[in-house]
Specification:
alpha+beta, outer membrane lipoprotein receptor (LolB), chain A, six-stranded antiparallel β-sheet, 18 strands, about 20% helix, about 30% strand, globular
């Protein structure tokens, strides 16, 4: 049986997508990858194991098609999770419900809010147990040393449970009660919990296949005890901070088993997603059954979501304030294409405080100077805040430029837009 050899994707190959769809995908994917890296998850190395299995030769085009055609809807397994973006560890419980499932005070269920768990997944190492049985049944559990957090979707019911606080939030799934319509996973789940598997991240990255991207098949591997091909995705644009994305694809069914994003700067992976074990048999029905433990505090998520802003306090901005803020920000715009796309938000004329400012503002300015690099250009001046993957330029006029690009690309974009 011949060994698999690297195969280069021809520029512009898109798996049969229309020109309009190709263009949209090429603009969207790098921004999506940056968003995932900056605000959501990375998974710790799913150990590939020893040896490279002998598999039939396959082209990159055929391997991408195999992933696209894969329709596996039943599985269970363990995912190892870790993120190294060069950011400080984020404390658990940061943020709040955002009005979706309750407030954030007084034991009202905030500890069980999916949005809060997203913050925990933004850095460090984690273990997830996942299970799925079609579009109506999914379960994700984050296993910690001292506690476990579970998110369970079963038909028209959604439960979020935090064992640490013994708090559960119960909600009705979208489309519940609509005759003839299939239940779907809740739309308001944060990306870090909804997309916490290799296949979700891989499908986003594969949409980038086009003239800004090199895609090859780079050998084989054993992942979670299964034979897999390794798909290597590399941006061609020099300004991108993404070095490469490697996706291990199950040779039998096309399911991505491992996703690794390495920054151009080198070192450890910024995002590494993989199964340590996986089973494609139908999970037991009991996997998706949930009953709050005795003594648990149960919060009605539907009622909490239905509350008016007045119920949440008087400190929320008024409709007039929000409208004014949107006007000041000038809206979101995307410059460039492919992996060097830069999202911009126009400021309202006042940027971050300077170290030269006096009083409290001066203290804030000195702190910002210590964590952000001062830069200058024909646009004026500002600060660049950097991670291993995503960089952001905030000008002294308050305009924000952010993307998975290097510092000079942000300065060039600001100069061109002045």
């Amino acid at each position: 049986m011949p060994r698999n050899e690297p195969t280069q994707v021809t520029d512009g190959w898109d798996g049969g997508r229309s020109p309009g769809r190709r263009k949209a995908m090429r603009y969207a994917v790098p921004v999506a990858v940056a968003g995932v890296a900056a605000a959501t998850i990375g998974l710790v190395p799913a150990f590939a194991g020893s040896g490279s299995p002998d598999l039939p030769k396959i082209s990159a085009q055929d391997l991408i098609a195999k992933v696209a055609k894969s329709d596996v809807q039943q599985l269970s397994g363990t995912v190892r999770v870790s993120t190294d973006l060069g950011l400080p560890s984020l404390p658990g419980g940061a943020g709040g419900f955002g009005g979706a499932q309750g407030g954030g005070k007084g034991g009202d269920g905030a500890s069980a809010a999916p949005q809060n768990k997203l913050m925990e997944l933004a850095s460090g190492a984690h273990t997830l147990r996942v299970a799925a049985d079609g579009p109506e049944k999914q379960r994700v559990s984050i296993v910690d040393k001292a506690a476990e957090y579970s998110l369970v979707h079963n038909g028209n019911e959604v439960w979020a449970y935090d064992s640490g606080s013994n708090t559960a939030v119960h909600s009705t799934a979208p489309d519940a009660g609509r005759h003839g319509k299939q239940h779907r996973a809740p739309k308001d789940l944060p990306g870090g919990l909804k997309d916490a598997t290799p296949q979700d991240l891989a499908k986003q990255a594969l949409k980038a296949a086009g003239d800004t991207t090199s895609v090859t098949v780079d050998g084989t591997a054993k992942v979670a005890g299964r034979d897999a091909y390794q798909l290597l995705i590399k941006p061609k644009q020099a300004a991108s901070t993404v070095g490469s994305i490697r996706v291990a694809v199950d040779a039998a069914n096309g399911v991505p088993l491992k996703f690794t994003l390495t920054p151009k700067s080198g070192g450890a992976a910024a995002i590494d997603v993989g199964y340590t074990n996986v089973d494609f048999a139908k999970p037991a029905a009991s996997t998706f059954a949930f009953t709050p433990p005795k003594g648990a505090k149960v919060v009605d998520g539907d009622k909490a979501r239905a509350k008016t802003p007045r119920d949440h306090g008087k400190d929320l901005p008024s409709h007039k304030d929000v409208k004014g803020l949107k006007k000041d920000m000038g809206g979101l715009n995307v410059l460039g294409k492919g992996w060097t796309s830069i999202a911009t938000i126009k400021g309202g004329g006042s940027g971050l405080p300077s170290g030269k400012d006096q009083g409290a503002g001066g203290d804030a300015g000195k702190f910002l100077d210590s964590i952000g690099e001062k830069v200058h250009g024909s646009f004026g001046s500002g600060r660049v805040f950097s991670t291993r993957l995503v960089n952001a330029l905030i000008t002294d006029h308050g305009t924000v430029y952010v993307g998975a690009v290097d510092k000079q690309a942000l300065i060039d974009a600001a100069n061109a837009a002045k």
